[in-house]
UniProtKB/TrEMBL annotation:
GO MF terms, alphabetically ordered: dynein complex binding
Biased composition (Polar residues): 80-92
Gene that specifies this protein: PAC1
Domain notes: Dimerization mediated by the LisH domain may be required to activate dynein.
Region of interest: Disordered: 80-106
Any one GO biological process: signaling
Principal subcellular localisation of the protein: cytoplasm
Name of the featured protein: Nuclear distribution protein PAC1
Subunit structure: Self-associates. Interacts with NDL1 and dynein.
Alphabetized HAMAP family for the sequence: lis1
Function: Positively regulates the activity of the minus-end directed microtubule motor protein dynein. May enhance dynein-mediated microtubule sliding by targeting dynein to the microtubule plus end. Required for nuclear migration during vegetative growth as well as development. Required for retrograde early endosome (EE) transport from the hyphal tip. Required for localization of dynein to the mitotic spindle poles. Recruits additional proteins to the dynein complex at SPBs.
SMART domains given in the database record: WD40 (SM00320)
Native species: Tothia fuscella
GO CC annotation terms, alphabetical: cytoplasm; microtubule; microtubule associated complex; spindle pole
Highest classification ranks of the organism: Eukaryota, Fungi, Dikarya, Ascomycota, Pezizomycotina
């Protein structure tokens, strides 16, 4: 008898083995084992039936537990690496400073309700609402603080590919675009009533963003909306009239993504032709061409001024560009599994390698230190721009399937209290993630990220 088992456990194991062998049709082996261990006549056919399947159940439960143990060991190792590479000071700052906050598993909320793949997510600029769009043709509005579904919006006839909040000052709207070739505008203040439908694209509309109009550190929403489509064009719309005011052509194939600069002067797009292009939003002229990826560009991002200090060092510049300047650096993510960082002239600064599958979304951390990415390898990865783009954190299995979208909650602009402090370099000081801008406004970073996935779920990662 094994020293690991008590006599009672050994008898149970023997009975399970005999029942397994008999059920598998190995009657000779079952009889030999029965004879060898002298189990006796008490183990009759009825008793044997009770033990059938017990061995298989034990085996599968052990495998599940083993997988859970391996997952916990991997997570423990990741946390240990974080601890090993951190100093007591940096750990204390991480807990207090929103600029150093990074998402951590598990998610605070897992939002379930869509019936097909979730394509996109977007945060309301003020309230704790998230909009998610799905291949099931619906948009759902969730409260990310409570983790509850607020409402379901129906109107599109095919999958919803992108959503965004924005619009004229004081009149926030929700925009959505779809494979049904349309863009729809919804009014959150009127139960998300559909107030306008914008037709015009000749194929699926893959991405939309409201174009801001404002200065550095104090962006305000405007009345323009930009859309990217499989018809190879970008279109700029006036949301107050519903008219298309400009059509931008230049891409040779499907435009997969588009994003505006913080001041609305520039638009960055990328697509199936494996190029990213920087456009003058006013004239529609192409001002920059970014070539270097070996596959479709799925996502693009314009670096905010808070990153300039770190990216200019990475680019070998002696001093960073002024914070008032926009679109100085950009990032592109591709199906070739890489992220590329560029300057505005189209010079490649750095290629970030780490993802095992297609890239789907890129988000610059508002604090300026990090770039976050997600993709079809089911992970969220955090790249440290102060360490030459090193991947410093990976959330494995952020979802159970491809991660299709990711957004960072927009920072809240608040009135700053005078007097203003300086940082010794003539610039505005920053404390606890609050940036003071000329004594007038400060930026409060909200440490919340939302992700969308083919697993039909939205996940919220928050501090």
């Amino acid at each position: 008898m094994s020293a690991l088992l008590t006599s009672k456990q050994a008898v149970e194991l023997h009975k399970s083995l005999i029942a397994y062998l008999a059920a598998a049709g190995l009657s000779n082996s079952a009889a030999a084992l029965r004879e060898e261990i002298q189990i006796g006549d008490t183990f009759d056919e009825a008793t044997q039936k009770r033990y059938e399947g017990l061995l298989e159940k034990k085996w599968t439960s052990v495998v599940r537990l083993q997988k859970k143990v391996m997952d916990l060991e991997a997570r423990n190792q990741s946390l240990q690496q974080e601890l090993d590479s951190a100093t007591p000071t940096s750990l204390a700052m991480k807990n207090k400073d929103p600029k150093s906050w990074l998402p951590r598993s598990p998610a605070r909320h897992t939002l379930e309700g869509h019936r097909l793949s979730v394509s996109c997510v977007a945060f309301h600029p003020v309230f704790s609402s998230i909009a998610s769009g799905s291949e099931d043709t619906t948009i759902k509005i969730w409260d990310w603080e409570l983790g509850e579904l607020e409402r379901t919006i129906k109107g599109h006839t095919r999958g919803v590919l992108d959503v965004d909040f924005g619009g004229p000052r004081g009149g926030t709207l929700l925009a959505s675009c779809s494979s049904d070739l349309t863009i729809k505008l919804w009014d959150p203040s009127d139960d998300y009533k559909n107030i306008r439908t914008l037709p015009g694209h000749d194929h699926s509309v893959s991405a939309i963003r409201f174009v801001p109009s404002g200065a550095a550190g104090a962006p305000s929403s405007g009345n323009l909306l930009v859309s990217a489509s499989r018809d190879n064009t970008l279109r700029i719309w006036d949301v107050t009239t519903g008219y298309c005011v400009k059509t931008i052509k230049g891409h040779a194939d499907w435009v997969r993504d588009v994003t505006p600069s913080f001041d609305g002067r520039w638009l960055l797009s990328g697509g199936v032709d494996q190029t990213a292009r920087l456009w003058d939003a006013a004239s529609g002229e192409c001002k920059g061409l970014f070539q270097g990826h070996d596959h479709v560009i799925e996502c693009v991002a314009i670096a905010p001024p808070s990153t300039y200090e770190h990216l200019s060092t990475l680019a070998g510049l002696k001093k960073p560009p002024p914070a008032s300047s926009s679109a100085e650096f950009i990032a592109t993510g591709s199906r070739d599994k890489t992220i590329k960082l560029w300057d505005a002239r189209g010079t490649l600064i750095k290629t970030l390698i780490g993802h095992d599958n297609w890239l789907r979304a890129l988000v610059f951390h508002p604090g300026g230190k990090y770039l976050l990415s997600c993709g079809d390898d089911k992970t969220i990865r955090c790249w440290d721009l102060t360490q030459e783009g090193k991947c410093v954190k990976t959330i494995e299995d952020a979802h159970g399937h491809f991660v299709t979208g990711m957004r960072f909650a927009p920072s809240i602009m608040k009135e700053a209290q005078p007097p203003q402090l300086t940082n010794g370099n003539g610039g505005a000081s920053t404390t606890n993630g609050v940036k003071k801008d000329q004594g007038k406004q400060m930026m409060q970073i909200r440490c919340v990220i939302a992700t969308a996935s083919v697993d039909m779920m939205v996940r919220v990662f928050a501090s």
